[in-house]
């Protein structure tokens, strides 16, 4: 069903987005891969066995998002699946000590960026009477944990945007889904801790986290359901995780 479908993945240069690119390529889709680190996207494109176009994109730049989507070649313009994956956590601190620049990065990327890409892509889906938006939420959108208030707020916003979009697109034939993972070992924690790889490793110490592939396979499964089936929400946790704050560790 995904053969020759055009799939746009934001944040395809790393982690879940990169794994989505690989999984959709295996399913025969054609890929639009977006991120800021285009060297990584080019390297990924070179090893994928499908049609790929690289889209240099900072989702925080709304004008650039509009230009990039409006400027797609006709062969790429009819996007069937949008995976709104680009996102990050920046910092881990009690709210009164938080860095407002970190808050801006998270809000601008996870919320405003997701909105900008959605706004640029979805009208075309409506006009074609089909399409699928898959957002990357998080367990953090369902529960707030200490030191993560703003990141959790951005993911709660993603959850509400997902629900609102689904309501607003009712009757158009366009599907809206969210995948809300718990702990996934990617570059997420390295980014959150500003490159401190040891601290990032400790996040997953003594437990088995999800892999980016686990999440990507779920997203491909969602996109591959028949057109009348809309998977609204999947919460995907490692077996070693019961909530945002309850994790079984063996050491
Ligand atoms: P990674 O850090 O491995 O990947 C993040 C991706 O987002 C990169 O490709 C990065 O590309 C891209 N990105 C970040 N900022 C921007 C921007 N301004 N414009 C365009 N692309 C951007 O993390 P994950 O793969 O783990 O994260 C992917 C998504 O999954 C995020 O939305 C995250 O919140 C969510 N998530 C992650 C979980 C986890 O435990 N890892 C759990 C639940 C949800 P580049 O820097 O090249 O632009
Ligand atoms: C990422 C998962 O629990 O580290 O969204 O916030 S968590």
Overview of this protein structure:
This protein has 251 residues and is α/β, with parallel strands linked by helices. It has one domain: NAD(P)-binding Rossmann-like Domain (Rossmann fold, 3-Layer(aba) Sandwich). A seven-stranded parallel beta sheet has the order 3-2-1-4-5-6-7, with helices on both faces. Helix 5 links the parallel strand 4 and strand 5. The longest helix is centred in the middle third of the chain and has 29 residues. It is globular and about 50 Å long. 42% of the residues are buried.
For the biggest sheet, the summary is: 7 strands, parallel
Total domain units:
1
CATH top level class name: Alpha Beta
Radius of gyration, in Å, reads: 17 Å
Please estimate the helix content: 40-55%
- Mean pLDDT, to the nearest integer, reads 98
Residue share in β-strands: 15-25%
Molecular shape: globular
Q: What is the chain-wise order of helices and strands?
A: EHEHEHHEHEHEHHHE
Q: Low-confidence parts lasting 5 or more residues at pLDDT below 50?
A: none
Q: What would you say the CATH architecture is?
A: 3-Layer(aba) Sandwich
What is the first-to-last residue Cα distance? 44 Å
